[in-house]
């Protein structure tokens, strides 16, 4: 392997820069040339390639966002788009790719490999932590801490005014961000897509807390919750318990920004090294991840199709700790 390229795709996540840095420095360490592709698959199609060296990634490990920028490309989902991307890789003499992103990124990489045989090793970069094949994804720890900081502040005002706050956190179709926010934030209730907690059950639970003389409440709602978003759930609760003073906060994109935590910098660095060394060892169509503290490479087909299950005992923890 003589020349590789690295890119970030999908939603940005804190720690992506630490991962890019690790990829670049590992390549340099092994005498491999490395290019950065700007704006993910979209930049690959347009030929937005930049040569990187060790100095290009100085002073980036602590920065949020991604220096390579990110995009979600519709064109790459077409055969014509992938052909253009392949032509650009050939023009630049690239013989391996490191793709930092989530399942959308790996789905694109799988198609690309099937059609053109370009080997790709993936790095799990998403705040959602919804990827099978790694206990944690790059950006997750930082996002949870950011959300928790906001929740702590919301609790102050909830407590001062005897209010019930419905706080919506990100996570796409998973409740991985919501669970530690609820446990760490001392929430009464958590609603996630992986469990079927009806709004009626939420109402019953709040009524019984109310009767136990609790005066302020926190309900963490994962954005993918099937009962509806935080506004819809709050509306139904208010209709059932009019005496409850309800408010809704959607934490939103601040969960994606900011300096990566120590855990995310560490994970991103480990994965970046593993991705390049995986390519050097002939791996393709796999994602590097850490499971039970060990480095593992999981086929993209598994990361895409297998569901990473949420430990149901966490729901019980929320119930016990909010008694
Ligand atoms: O995948 C990361 C994520 O932040 C999800 O939690 C969220 O559903 C989505 O991206 C938001 O995407 P966008 O920034 O395109 O609105």
From TrEMBL:
It is an enzyme of class 2 (transferase). Transmembrane segments: none annotated. Allosterically activated by ADP and other diphosphonucleosides, and allosterically inhibited by phosphoenolpyruvate. ADP binds at residues 21-25, 155, 186-188, 212, 214-216. It catalyses: beta-D-fructose 6-phosphate + ATP = beta-D-fructose 1,6-bisphosphate + ADP + H(+). Mg(2+) binds at residue 103. ATP binds at residues 11, 72-73, 102-105. Substrate binds at residues 126-128, 163, 170-172, 223, 247, 253-256. The active site is at residue 128. Residues 3-278 form the Phosphofructokinase domain. Its EC number is 2.7.1.11. GO terms for cellular component: 6-phosphofructokinase complex. One of its GO terms (molecular function) is AMP binding. Keywords: Allosteric enzyme, ATP-binding, Cytoplasm, Glycolysis, Kinase, Magnesium, Metal-binding, Nucleotide-binding, Transferase. Pfam families: PFK. GO terms for biological process: canonical glycolysis; fructose 1,6-bisphosphate metabolic process; fructose 6-phosphate metabolic process. SUPFAM superfamilies: Phosphofructokinase. InterPro entries: ATP_PFK, ATP_PFK_prok-type, PFKA_ATP_prok, Phosphofructokinase_CS, Phosphofructokinase_dom, PKF_sf. Its cofactor is Mg(2+). It is found in: Cytoplasm. HAMAP family: Phosphofructokinase_I_B1 (MF_00339). Belongs to the phosphofructokinase type A (PFKA) family. ATP-dependent PFK group I subfamily. Prokaryotic clade 'B1' sub-subfamily. Homotetramer. Catalyzes the phosphorylation of D-fructose 6-phosphate to fructose 1,6-bisphosphate by ATP, the first committing step of glycolysis. This is ATP-dependent 6-phosphofructokinase. It comes from Hymenobacter perfusus.
